[in-house]
Design a protein that fits this description.
The chain has 349 residues and is α/β, with parallel strands linked by helices. The protein has one domain: Arginase, Chain A (3-Layer(aba) Sandwich). The chain contains eleven helices and ten strands.
Length: 349
């Protein structure tokens, strides 16, 4: 770790709790306040985190990545009680909460050069320039990356959410200044049905989108193989100034919407290995961890955060599934070889 102060900023606002979609929706907005209570109740984590208030951003910031027409559409949907998509109703107060989440990620981007490691309870990666879906109203990941890009920084977005980050991918589809890497459950088996290996960007952005589809039940051995064969070599060659990782606990085997098989040790591995990838390149690091569904979301977030902050985790309460360095799933090996073929003109793999 570096010699900067030990406490790292985590951006938050109590109005994050208004980011919800109604009763029986899988995205439980109480996750935010309960997570803050969990941090304060864990002496190791509490002593390593500096909680800072997230501001709400205005339209000028949102138009970094969203069209003015889309912002008007969100306002109309909120006034009229309509939906952006079947799974994303725009309830009263959700727009302001989303602007707070974007504000937290933007502040994380503004402070990363000084702090080196910053965090926010964000990661709303399914919203594109002209659309919202998948529980995502605005795309805070893209706003943070665009802010840094406009400041002359090269940005790597490493999306480890079990669901592929289609909105972020679409926004930076033609940009060579933002390297977008997504490792996710195979799109033939999970929403949003995007992120096949052949999707590698267009125009100047060819080769700067990297999608790694995982088979169902992928465990830590499969993730380790993907990091070794694709993710780390591409990041080293890209030489980012800042690495943004987004994705919460939904690769965990208990998640109610997905079919991957990381244990808590595997989630810690994601946070730690992503942060190490940034440090290896002298890059600043931003972590955004809002996703996850089911009963063990917050435990998963804590595991990721401890990996990011290089803190010890308690003995996992779930079974050990796989080991780094074990032979990966045969279908993943085939997928990786296919992906190397698509990326061969752009990266040495």
């Amino acid at each position: 770790m570096d010699d900067t102060p030990s406490k790292k900023p985590l951006y938050y606002h109590k109005n994050y709790g208004n980011y919800g979609f109604g009763s029986f929706h899988p995205f439980d907005p109480e996750r935010f306040s309960r997570f803050m209570e969990m941090i304060r109740g864990d002496e190791v984590t509490d002593s390593a985190v500096d909680i800072r208030e997230a501001p709400a951003v205005d339209d000028d910031i949102l138009t970094y990545v969203h069209s003015e027409g889309y912002l008007e559409h969100v306002k109309r949907c909120e006034m009229e009680g309509r939906r952006l998509s079947p799974d994303t109703p725009v309830r009263p107060g959700i727009s302001e909460a989303a602007r707070r989440i974007v504000g937290g990620s933007l502040e994380a981007a503004k402070s990363v050069e000084r702090e080196r490691i910053t965090m926010n309870l964000g990661g709303l990666h399914h919203a594109g320039r002209d659309y919202g879906e998948g529980f995502c109203v605005f795309n805070d990941v893209a706003v943070a990356a665009e802010y840094l890009k406009r400041g002359g920084k090269k940005v790597c977005i490493l999306d480890t959410d079990a669901h592929q980050g289609n909105g972020t991918m679409d926004i930076f589809w033609t940009s060579p200044k933002v390297l977008f890497i997504s490792i996710h459950q195979h799109p033939a088996t999970l929403y949003p049905g995007r992120g096949y290996a052949h999707e590698i960007g267009e125009c100047d952005g060819l080769g700067y989108t990297v999608n790694i589809p995982l088979p169902r039940d992928a465990n830590i051995a499969d993730y380790h193989y993907a990091f070794r064969e694709i993710i780390l070599p591409v990041i080293v060659q890209f030489e980012p100034d800042v690495l943004i990782r987004n994705g919460g606990s939904d690769p965990h085997h208990s998640d109610s919407l997905t079919d991957l098989a990381l244990d808590m040790r595997g989630l810690e591995y994601l946070g730690r290995t992503s942060r190490e990838a940034a440090e290896m390149n002298g890059a600043g690091y931003i972590d955004l961890m809002v996703s996850g569904y089911g009963l063990r979301v917050l435990e998963g977030w804590i595991s990721i955060m401890k990996g990011v902050l290089n803190l010890p985790i308690k003995t996992p309460t779930d079974q050990r599934i796989g080991e780094p360095g074990q032979e990966p799933n045969y279908s993943l090996r085939a997928e990786v070889e296919k992906l190397k073929g698509y990326l061969e003109p752009y990266w040495v793999l």
